[in-house]
Inverse folding.
C-alpha cells in the first residue's frame, strides 16, 4: 500500500519537474524576458533595415554586443543551474544576467575605440578582465542551454591556442598566453563575434522573427493548408491522366519522343508496363526511365544468349 501511495507522488514530482523545465520564469523575470526580447527585436529591425532613427547607426560590432548581452541575460533567466530546478529565478541568476548586460554593454560602448586602436591584439588591462568575465559567462550559458558535452567541446577548443605547440604536428601551432587569447575571442571579428555571430545577427534573427510572426498570426497554418491543397489537386490531376491513358499507352510530357519509346517497348511488354505504372500513379519521367532500363537489360541478356 505504501508503494501504491507513492506512485501518485512520483507522478506529481515528475510532472512538477517537467513543468519547471518547460517554464521560463515567473513574475518579474517573465516581464524582464518579454521586455528584453522586444528590445532585441527592435534593435535588430533598426539595424537590418538601416532605419537611422534620430540619424544614428550602430557599428556592426556594437550591434552584435547588444544582441549578445540581451540574449545571454535571457539564457541565465531561462535555464537553471541544474536541470529540473524550480522555475523561480534565484538571486545568483539575476546577478549573472546583470553581469552579462554589464560586460556586453562595456564592449558595445567601447566598440569604436577598440576598432580604432586594435584592442584584439593590444587590449588595455580593463578590457582583458572584462573579456575573461564575458568568456566565463558564455561558457556557463553554453553548459546550461547545450549540456555538459557541448560545454566540454567548446572549452577544449577555446583553450587550444594555450597549448597548441604541444599538439602533434598536423594540428600544432604557436602557443599564446591565456590573457591574449581570451580578449582576441571577445573583441576580434574572427572569433566569438565572427562569421557565426554575424550570420545570426544579420540573417538568422530575421528568419526567426518572420517564422514567429507567421506562427502566431496563423499565416503558417494558412500556408501549410494552401500547399497541401495544391499537392492534393496535383495528385488528383495525375490520377485522372493515368486513368484516361488506357492500356498500352502512357501519357508522357515529352510528346512524340516518349510516345515512340512506349511503342518501341510494345514488343517487350511495354503496354503492360505502361498500364501498371499508370495504375500505380507513378510519375511519367520515372516510368519511361524504368521501361527503358528494363528494355536495355533484356537486350543485353538476349545478346549474351546469342553470343
Amino acid at each position: 500500500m505504501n508503494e501504491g501511495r507513492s506512485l501518485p507522488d512520483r507522478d506529481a514530482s515528475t510532472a512538477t519537474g517537467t513543468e519547471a523545465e518547460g517554464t521560463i520564469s515567473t513574475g518579474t523575470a517573465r516581464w524582464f524576458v518579454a521586455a528584453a526580447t522586444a528590445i532585441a527585436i527592435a534593435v535588430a529591425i533598426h539595424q537590418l533595415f538601416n532605419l537611422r532613427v534620430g540619424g544614428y547607426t550602430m557599428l556592426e560590432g556594437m550591434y552584435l554586443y547588444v544582441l549578445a548581452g540581451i540574449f545571454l541575460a535571457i539564457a541565465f533567466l531561462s535555464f537553471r543551474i541544474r536541470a529540473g530546478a524550480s522555475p523561480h529565478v534565484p538571486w545568483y541568476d539575476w546577478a549573472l544576467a546583470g553581469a552579462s548586460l554589464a560586460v556586453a554593454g562595456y564592449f558595445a560602448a567601447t566598440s569604436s575605440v577598440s576598432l580604432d586602436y586594435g584592442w584584439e591584439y593590444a587590449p588595455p588591462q580593463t578590457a582583458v578582465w572584462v573579456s575573461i568575465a564575458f568568456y566565463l559567462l558564455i561558457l556557463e550559458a553554453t553548459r546550461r542551454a547545450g549540456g555538459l558535452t557541448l560545454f566540454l567541446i567548446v572549452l577544449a577548443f577555446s583553450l587550444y591556442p594555450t597549448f597548441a605547440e604541444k599538439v602533434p604536428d598536423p594540428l600544432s601551432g604557436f602557443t599564446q598566453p591565456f590573457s591574449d587569447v581570451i580578449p582576441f575571442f571577445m573583441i576580434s571579428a574572427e572569433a566569438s563575434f565572427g562569421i557565426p555571430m554575424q550570420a545570426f545577427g544579420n540573417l538568422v534573427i530575421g528568419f526567426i522573427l518572420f517564422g514567429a510572426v507567421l506562427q502566431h498570426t496563423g499565416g503558417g497554418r494558412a500556408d501549410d493548408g494552401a500547399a497541401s491543397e495544391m499537392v492534393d489537386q496535383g495528385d488528383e490531376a495525375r490520377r485522372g491522366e493515368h486513368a484516361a491513358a488506357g492500356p498500352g499507352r502512357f501519357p508522357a510530357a515529352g510528346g512524340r519522343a516518349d510516345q515512340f519509346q512506349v511503342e518501341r517497348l510494345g514488343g517487350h511488354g511495354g503496354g503492360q508496363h505502361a498500364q501498371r505504372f499508370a495504375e500505380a500513379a507513378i510519375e511519367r519521367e520515372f516510368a519511361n526511365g524504368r521501361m527503358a532500363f528494363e528494355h536495355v537489360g533484356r537486350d543485353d541478356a538476349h545478346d549474351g544468349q546469342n553470343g
